[in-house]
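Suppose a colleague, Dr. K., hands you the sequence of a protein chain of 667 amino acids and asks what its three-dimensional shape might be. Before reaching for any lab equipment, you can write down a predicted structure in token form. Begin with the sequence itself:
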Amino acid sequence: MNTPTDSPPPQNPNPGPSQPGNGPPSAKRPIRPAPISRGMLMFILVSVVLLLYWLQYRDESLANVRYDFFREQLAANNIESVLIEEEMIYGTWKKPPERKLEDSATTPPPKADADSEKSKPALFPKKFNVVRPPAEDKDLLADLDAKNVEVTGAKTPWGIQFLLMVLFPILLMLGILWFIMRRTSDPMGQGGMLGGFIKSPAKRFMPAEQQTTFDDVAAMENAKSELQEVVEYLKNPTKFQKLGAEIPKGILLMGAPGTGKTLLARATAGEAGVPFFSINGSEFIQMFVGVGASRVRDMFRTAKESAPCLIFIDEIDAVGRARGTGVGGGHDEREQTLNQILGEMDGFTPSEAVIVLAATNRPDVLDPALLRPGRFDRHITIDRPSKAGRLGVLKVHTRKVPMADNVDLDSIAGGTIGFSGADLKNLVNEAALHATREGKDRVENEDFEYAHDKVLLGPRREEVFNEHEREMTAYHEAGHALLAWLLPDVDELHKVTIIPRGRSLGVTQLVPDEERYNVGEKRLHAQLAFMLGGRAAEKLVFDEYSAGAEDDLKKATDLARRMVGYWGMSEAIGPISLRHAEHQPFLGKEIAEHQREYSDETARILDQEVQKILFGAAKRATQMLTENREDLDKLSQGLLEKEALAADDISEIIGAAVSRTRGGSEK
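The predicted structure, expressed as tokens, is then:
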């Protein structure tokens, strides 16, 4: 029975509004293979000769027959010639005899065609071989001579046997060992064993492949204006150098996931018409020490050769985290890679038109040396789009989507406060998918309603409640909905449902009516009363609490603790910041730091103030629900009948909502 409030929707890790793809990466610079020496060539030739000599005794066209069958064919004068060795006899038939299953030693008979299988019997191949019996057949040569069989003798030379059985495996192992030692003599060299590892895996896009420009980037006007200067410098570097101006060497794009940092970097390169090198921060790190630093050197060297150009490092926090934090020292591979990045960015000269763009959603963990002027001179924050920006993003993503006349993008933009560009792209895609499943030829407004609920609340779950659980869920959500209807400092109620979605058994959905960047104490207390309304309704109707209020209590407690410890909204505590258990992204750093910097007595007072605020909110919620018990029963009955109620449905059941407050005044 989780109840979402006006908190931002879940983030999507994909970038913001994006149209074209990255395009095919251009080919990397070829690596010249190591030349084959004479010794290696001779070794290969000798190996081939020995292998061919060995294979001549493995002629698969020979029939392997039994010795008694060989004697029968000799008595029938059907053998033309034989070659006798120490253990084998190789021969040729005068006329290939008919093959029977009991005549063959190991060689299976050939498969005959379906039409000729009955008309033609299976015959042995022209040549055969037979294993000589352990006991010597003294009459064999005399019988062969009596039948006028051409007899020849052969014996494998001792040198060949020695080569095949002893020297060939030794030479093969020595050749492999020599090859490995030669490759590892200079492991980081051009032809070394690790030569491919040190090559930068950055994808290179040429100007012809860059189809994304600033026209494809909706909203983010401030960021685009900052980057426009970079575009002009890359197009005409001498214009700035005449006045002694130096363009920033590095620009850091900071923002929440899905706000369009990667898209903006790609659009900057497309607008400037210069080569674009793209790499993720984690691609520098490898299992071999020093590989990351070598990749950095290779990437910057290649970029300088292609200047003017743009380097984009996505998720730079993977390699640029602060040094000397947590477990690990200066020998760490990540820190060596970071040191190389710092050195390369210092090595630029004013004449080298190479600009580094980097993106992160964790600027707080970056090393200070990386953020100083001279490396990343400019820090551009990319926020979630405003209503006008969301409208522009929706227009970009609906260019190729056939829309019905009842779709109002302005209304959709107003109801998606807190959505990032990636969330809006996902919203349009989910609406198009729903329309396709319904067999429509255009996307309608109800498809966007479905997509909005799915993105914000999660997919619908198929669960069966018993009657008591269903009724308790209905009263819980009705309690939330009624307080949202009656409290003027709470955002407008959009929908309430007892259909399980995501991890919630029921949802009361609020929609902010305006962009809000600050909040006052009065609105926070009203928000707490709304959060505890479902729990208060359960106690009022059923005289017991349920486990369904777990998420409500967690959110309410966290908000009340922030009010007291972070924002100083308590007369007993006063204007003091009492942060507790600050989250550390580095392993082991919290071990060396105190968990809190205040006494146990202050902690006790803080807990008491948090309890006081929560008790007051619960009392306020219970009092309002008691005074409006009849409306609470009507709402719960409506939910039991329809399972979902929109704002218009609630107006028909209990009347109009109270006037909302905006900026301290009613509207």
